[in-house]
Amino acid sequence: MFSYDPSNRILKVQKLAEEEVDLGLLEYQKESYQKYLTETIYSDMEYLLQVMRELLQVSQVDAEFRVGDLYCGNYKNEVKKKSPSYYPVYAKFTIDGAVFPNEVEVFRIPAMDEDGILNFNGDRRVLLMQMVAAERVSYAADKQTVSITTPRRNISLMFDGTKDVTIKYGPRNKIPMHKLIRAYNAKEKVYDDPSKLFTSAYILSAFATDSAATDEAIEDELDKLNIYATYSGDDYALGKTRDALNEALSLDRARGRILSRPVGPFEAGRRVDDEVLHYIHLHCINEIYVKAIPDVVGYTLTQELVISFVPAGTHNNSRLQEALPEFADYSAIPQDSQVCIFMSSKETLTKEDVQFLYDVGAHHVDCKRPGSAPIRATFEEEVIGNYTVRLGDIYGHNIPAGRFHDEWVCFYNNPKFERTDMDHLNTHDLMALYSLCAFIKKNPEENFLLDKDFGLLKKVLAANELFSNAMREVLPDFVKHYSVSISRAISQNLLTEGKFAGLSDMWKKYLWDKNYLDIANTINPIAVVAQTNHLVSDLHTSEIPEKMRLLSMGFYGRICPYETPSGKKLGITNTKAIGARIKDGILTTPYRRVLKNSNGEIESISQEITYMDAQEEAQFRIGDLLSLKKDGYRYLNTKVMARVPAPNNQVTVESVDAYTLDYVNAYCEQHLSPTAALIPFAGSDDAVRVTYATNMLKQSILVQGSQIPRVFTSMYRRCFNHSNTYVIRAKKDGWVEQIPMGKLQLTYDDGTIEDIEICETSVTNQSVNFLNFHVKEGDHFKKGDVLVDSAIAREGIYSPGVNLFAAYLADGYNYEDAVELSEYAANQFISISTETITHRMHRQSNESIRVGTEYCYRFIPENGVIAKVSRQSKSDARCHSKDVLRSGKHSGILYKIERNHKETRLAEYNAHLLSFNRLRTGDKMAGRHSNKGTASIIRKNSEMPCFMNGRQLDILLNPCGVPSRMNIGQNFEAYLGFIAYLLDVYVESDPFNGATKGDIKLLMRYVWDLANNENAKSVCSNYPMLPSTLHEQAIRRHEAIRDWAGCFNPDGTAYLWNPATGKCLENPVTFGVPYMLKLEHEVNHKFHARAGMLEEDYSQISKQPTEGSARGGGQKMGEMELCALAAYGATDFLYETCNSMSDNVLDRVNTTLRTLNLPEYTQGGESVPHAVEMFRYFLETLGYRLTEDERLLPPCDGEFADDRTVPDIRGILSRQKVSDPEEESTGLEDLLKGEFG
């Protein structure tokens, strides 16, 4: 489906016409922040008063709080974004009746800008939203644990092997469930004997273990642990969990089972269906019994059994094969038969025996578990509720006034169904939970509780919750720490804001220590958007369960399946999908109802959006909107892949008829993150490659010659809608009133006036942003017009890279991940970055150092003068000297010099430069499909292969990188980019609902016909499926398109001319115009030499040099580097890299000694790297000895390890300097003897 916008020259290609997703990228985080700013902060301040009353020696503390206006630094300081910005919180205290006259600033709430970045004392930080367990009831099969998550605590019911269910209490204590029930029952006096309601052998055996103890004795035992008081306290209040608990404990879990006892008018043997359940709810029945096989496998019979009759259909087993040999070959007995089978006491029951007793209709069996008292297990199972029911199940639609249909009520001793306190666990809950656990233990495959990780039973904590939780954790410690100074200030009536200055610092430190804050990744706009949409699993353990890293059905439409970091954070840090909405902390995703006619056929798809969480959608059949096929206006009943409910309340994917679907996804890209939505043809790439591509998009840096992508997705237009940092669009028609410094004043046609604050130039440690005005004072504009843009957002479209002519052609210089570029392409990738040059100057205690600032805002060449330095002695005016600060290997525009005032003995100055870096050999580049590579060579334009019309290629990519990476999407993008280049348009194609292979073939044939035909109108008449406005554009561009006649084939290949040979290449080459990015891994940032063997520090364990220029070390040589050295035949350098520059200590020492013209140190055998020695030691511990005939390896024994010494070269040189020059040779010989023994 094609549509063309001639005003913006955008050709939109879609499989299905649909509305765009309502993004709301920062909506929930900003709403949560505003809620804290306007509401929650006041309750936190009330908590401050409560803590002060408890910890300070004052009888009464009151205060009036208010949040002040936003404070921010001056505009001239905004260039480096270092000025603090915050909302002050003021308090006017009244203590012991005395009213303090002045307001005191007690706290500072960091300001959040339009991009979701917080300003902590000038530092840019991002608050990461946390995912914690929601207030639900869940079951973890791997841990065999039922979890009841309350707003503050988690109650865990664990299966203790085959013995009992235990409830976790404290870090290590576990209490048997049957003891807890007896203790609760002794206090609440609900049941005469709770054990009589159960028929499960698993539960009855647990009750039998303490049958001799009285309820009062067990109550006293648990009272010593203060359990009842703890579970009745505020920490274990159920809150929203009560509804989820009531639903989990409802008798609805008996649906589909066979009654073993009559229920009202329903006889035993009736299957539990909606009619039975309606009767149960209406008449407030709390327990029913259904047929079941008892869980007595492994139990011992306590009474002899004799079976004389076997009904038809009984499963065959070894006993029946012996008693009825004529039916030995049958899987089930075909007819009623008389037998005489004897089962003796003390015989252990097997699974086959229990099934046999069930088939022959046994009512019960007397048995015992080893170590437990005898029990009578019946062939039925109890289903116990917790005496709760929904009002709608009782009253139907006649709900009493002021009550609700979904309201839960307790009907125990409550005939009028009045509201009662159900905020804590009671005996009814524990009884129903015990029955539920026994059901799960015996029928794990029929469990209907979702796993909180796989089922995504999580809630999201944003600014409001995280700020408040941190404040309540910090306040008691703050008041304790400053209690003396605050008490003294109160007594002297001098309570000032300085007494509360530490509160903001402690609060920030708590957020940082808990990893709730992260340094803002401002390398490009999409990196900021992705970071502010991160969802981090809040874990309080070092061991991360493997299942938490896996994808599950609950992720769809809520968490992006692609974007997650590699390494330890894999699957732990995720990104919210663009279609997801957070409602009351729960992640939901949009769906559309499938509307059907009376025949069950699909009539249409509803336009109404329904948001559902993971638990709600598990009840429906949900398919993909793109999978529905139509014949004209009629939907076809084809087979489609859909998520369908499974018997255990899980979700599976099956192929079903389209007419059986209940819902479809509302948008085709709703499951993608903002970064993944930037990748055109992502559906044609391998999923892992899409993950890598999202990381590369976040690593791309600003280039001066950036261009609008010829092929982009709708996200490129919409990723700036939430902010004015990079693009400002007109909200309504109007004109520009005035453009003062730092503002844009607009007047709309309806009379309203808007002042938009802007930062024309912003510089961070990672990026630079310059705004470009499209309007001037007095200009008129229309709604949607771009008023201001930037190099990263040209015309309001995200533009991080450059469109290049590329060919997939193998050359020696683009082997593996290397790419070959032209000078033209290198000049397009001039990146703007920031460089910080640190100068440390020692100064005496009586000396002052002054650096001039008159050199700012000018270009500094390499090793150029940054500023002049004057030294002046405070005691002697004549002691005056001058020096200069130089840029060293850096160059750029100097825009700021600042001093680090934390240093006392050193005068430390930081000079900040704006550097302009042309693409160089060694710089990393990438496409949008994880096709990353390093620039191996930059050729002259005339040396690059060219088309028959003389147009040179800009970049050569290795064709082997396509099938190996399984990212065919880069070819589709290249083809479509070439088509857009010829037509001089921009193509919008979304990752999934975008151009198909057939669309690309059609458009390629279209431009080929235009290039090879003189009459453009006749060509356009052959393509009626394309928009007429596109034909008009093609006719205007026909002269330029004709220049490509005979230069390419309609299949996307071309014969290229090789200037090196003066001939055409033998075979056609795939080509196109992909969009290329420059990554932050620039080679000028990676330049640093090794400090040298004398200056470097080495690890005591691995003997390897430290890594990085900051530590005086160097870059490590990995496997790929060593293979490259071997391929080039650099044997000497390879040996040096693996020995003296690595962990071969002896070779390192001897290399240094040879450099100093000193005698080498020798030992028995050749020297080997330390890693080899350690490997031999490990083999020795395992009882293996590594031997070799030529004895090149040093001995591996304790004596060698103890006696071996390593010379101290630094000591040799230092003592050499102080030795007598005339006796230098003799001194060195004695010194060496002393050093080496």
TrEMBL record:
GO terms for biological process: DNA-templated transcription. The keyword Nucleus does not apply. Keywords: DNA-directed RNA polymerase, Nucleotidyltransferase, Transcription, Transferase. The keyword Nucleotidyltransferase applies. Residues 676-1111 form the DNA-directed RNA polymerase subunit 2 hybrid-binding domain. Coiled coil: none annotated. This is DNA-directed RNA polymerase.
